[in-house]
Structure formats: structure tokens, C-alpha cells
Design goal:
single chain; 94 residues; mainly alpha
Length: 94
Amino acid sequence: KYGGDALWALLMFLGFRCVLIRASVLRVTFFSLAFCFAVEFSQIYHAPWIDAIRSTRLGALALGATFNAPDLIAYAFGVALGVVIESTRLRRSE
């Protein structure tokens, strides 16, 4: 159940890494976790306009529907996997 959340967080880490090429791994980690956590906490908020977005397939995939605290742990694992991958890649390129 949480594998998809971890993979989503890994994708966010890799996406931020591609955009923030010159940023440190620590900074990318911070932005990735902040983004993932913000999306998860936004699921507590239910206004008609955002629920209308969530009712679409893309909106549901991007924003989710219901807050689930264990998802935060899965996001941390996904981002940590990104850190391991990027740190290994950087060590090998030196």
C-alpha cells in the first residue's frame, strides 16, 4: 500500500534534483519532503474548488483524497532512497 507513496516521493526528489541542478542534496531533500508533506496535509482541506480538482483522475493522482499520517513515513523513505541514489552517483563521478 505504501510502495506507491514512496515511489511518488522518489519521483518528486528526482524532479527537484533535475530542476535544482546546482543545489546541494540536502536542499533538494528539504524541498522534496516539504512538497510531499504539503500535498499530504492539503488533503485535510476540503473546499468545493479543490475537491472538484481531486475528483478528476489527474487531480486525484497529484493531490490525493484523504489524509493518512503513515503516508508521511512512506514519503520519507522514498526521499531517503533518492538521497542514497544521488549520493552514490556523486561519489562515483568524483
